[in-house]
Design goal:
Elements (H helix, E strand, L loop, with lengths): L11 H10 L3 H8 L3 H11 L4 H4 L3 E3 L12 E4 L2 E7 L4 H4 L3 E6 L2 E6 L2 E6 L5 E6 L10 E4 L9 E6 L2 E6 L6 E3 L1 E5 L5 E5 L4 E7 L2 E6 L4 E5 L5 E4 L2 E2 L10 E5 L2 E8 L2 E8 L5 E6 L5 E5 L8 E4 L10 E5 L7 E5 L9 H7 L3 E4 L2 E4 L4 E3 L8
Parallel strand pairs: 18-22, 23-25
Antiparallel strand pairs: 1-29, 2-3, 4-5, 5-6, 6-7, 8-9, 9-10, 10-11, 12-13, 14-15, 15-16, 16-17, 19-20, 20-21, 21-22, 23-24, 25-26, 27-28
Helix pairs in contact: 1-3
Protein name: KIB1-4 beta-propeller domain-containing protein
Length: about 375
C-alpha cells in the first residue's frame, strides 16, 4: 500500500473534498498555486462544480487619480476585514481609457492598442494596434473566454464596427455589418448603430446586447459575424441598461425597471426568443456593478457565508458603504439612489472624446471558468 510522503502526494479525492470546504476565491487560488498536483486537482474540479456559483465575487474599488479614497485591496463579502491585494498598476491604467471587464481582466485602450490586466495576478496582455481613424476610439471591450483559453478572443466596438482579436494573434478582424434574418430563407444586412455593453458566453454560444435592447448572437468561426435575434420584450421593460447573469442552466437579464430591480429568463428554445419574467431568484444572489461594462455574477446558497438569497448586491456608489442589497422586485425607496448611480459613472475628457473611468465592480478569477 502506497503511503503519501508529503502534501504533494495527497490523493485526488481528498484534495477535491478540500476545495469544497474553501470559503473564498483567493483561498482557492492559493490552493491551486501550491504545487502542480494540487493545480491539476483544481482543474479537474472545474468540470464537476461551478466555482462561480460556490463563492461570492470580490469587490474592486479602483484607486482613482489624485485620490486616496480607496486602498489597493479587494473587499470580500465573506470577510470584510481580510486583506487581499489587487495587482492592478493603477498609476499606469489611469492614463488609459477603460472599455470593459470580463474573466478577471480589466480591459483598457491606449494608443489604439488593448491592454488586459489580470486583477488577481497583475499579468498584462497587449493586443496589436487597431487600424482605425485618427479620431476613432473604442467604446466597449470584452473577452469571449479567459485569455489562457485556446479560443479566447477580445471583442471591441469602434463606431458602427465590431473588431475581433484572437488572443495571441497578430491582427484584428473587422465586422461592419450584422445579419438580420426575416425568416429561414432571407437575410438582410444592417450596421451596428448603437453601442454594445454586455457580452456573455453561455453553453458554448456567445450573446451580446446593445443600449437599444437589441440581442445578438456572435459567431467567431468559420466566419466572424453578428446575427440579430428576434426577441419578445413584453415581460419587462428595462430602464436602458441591464446585465447578463447565469444561474444554473438559465441565462438571465437583470436590471432596473420602474425603480425596482427585475429579471427575465432568456428562453432560447424557440425560433423567436422569449423573455420570461422571473419572480424570484430562489436560492441565488446576484452581484451587479455600478457600470454596464462590468460583469454580473450569481452565487448559490449565499446563506452559507452570511449572505441573502433572492437579493441583488449592488456596488456602493457614494463611497460610504461597499455595497447595498435589494430584493428582486423590491422598490428602491431611497429618493436619490438612481441619481447617485449615474453620478458614479466617472467621466473624463481625453483627446479623442469622452470615455468612462473604471467604477466599482465585482470581480472573479478568470481561471475559475469551466474549460
Amino acid at each position: 500500500m502506497l503511503v503519501p510522503q508529503g502534501w504533494a502526494d495527497l490523493p485526488d479525492d481528498l484534495l477535491q473534498s478540500i476545495i469544497f470546504l474553501l470559503g473564498t476565491p483567493h483561498e482557492t487560488l492559493a490552493f491551486a498555486a501550491t504545487c502542480h498536483h494540487w493545480y491539476a486537482a483544481f482543474l479537474s474540479c472545474l468540470s464537476a462544480i461551478d466555482l462561480f456559483a460556490l463563492f461570492p465575487p470580490l469587490l474592486l474599488r479602483p484607486k482613482l487619480p489624485d485620490s486616496n479614497l480607496y486602498s489597493e485591496h479587494f473587499v470580500d463579502p465573506t470577510n470584510t476585514v481580510a486583506s487581499v491585494r489587487c495587482r492592478v498598476p493603477w498609476r499606469t491604467v489611469n492614463k488609459m481609457d477603460y472599455i470593459g471587464y470580463s474573466y478577471g481582466n480589466i480591459i483598457y485602450c491606449y494608443k489604439k492598442k488593448c491592454h488586459l490586466f489580470d486583477v488577481f495576478t497583475g499579468a498584462m496582455t497587449k493586443s496589436p494596434r487597431l487600424i482605425i481613424g485618427k479620431r476613432d476610439y473604442p467604446t466597449f471591450g470584452a473577452l469571449t473566454a479567459p485569455p489562457a483559453s485556446a479560443d479566447s478572443s477580445v471583442l471591441v466596438q469602434v463606431g458602427c464596427s465590431l473588431f475581433r482579436w484572437k488572443v495571441g494573434s497578430t491582427s484584428w478582424l473587422k465586422l461592419c455589418q450584422i445579419d438580420v434574418p426575416f425568416n429561414h430563407l432571407i437575410v438582410s444586412r444592417s450596421q451596428l448603430h448603437t453601442p454594445i455593453f454586455q457580452v456573455m458566453s453561455f453553453k458554448g454560444e456567445i450573446f451580446a446586447i446593445d443600449s437599444s435592447s437589441n440581442l445578438f448572437k456572435v459567431f467567431l468561426e468559420p466566419r466572424f459575424r453578428l446575427q440579430k435575434l428576434s426577441v419578445g420584450w413584453a415581460a419587462v421593460k428595462f430602464d436602458g441598461y441591464m446585465w447578463f447573469v447565469v444561474c444554473d442552466d438559465m441565462l438571465l437579464l437583470i436590471g432596473p425597471a420602474n425603480n425596482r430591480y427585475q429579471a427575465v429568463h432568456l428562453d432560447l428554445s424557440s425560433r423567436r426568443k422569449r423573455m420570461v419574467k422571473v419572480e424570484r431568484l430562489e436560492n441565488w444572489a446576484v452581484f451587479v456593478g455600478s457600470g454596464t461594462k462590468s460583469q454580473a455574477f450569481a452565487c448559490k446558497n449565499p446563506e452559507r457565508w452570511g449572505g441573502r438569497s433572492n437579493c441583488i448586491y449592488l456596488c456602493g456608489v457614494d463611497g460610504e458603504q461597499p455595497w447595498c442589497t435589494v430584493q428582486l422586485g423590491e422598490e428602491v425607496k431611497e429618493p436619490d439612489y438612481w441619481e447617485r448611480q449615474y453620478r458614479w459613472r466617472h467621466l473624463r475628457h481625453v483627446e479623442d472624446g469622452v470615455t468612462d473611468l473604471l467604477s466599482t465592480i465585482w470581480v472573479f478569477p478568470g481561471v475559475f471558468s469551466r474549460i
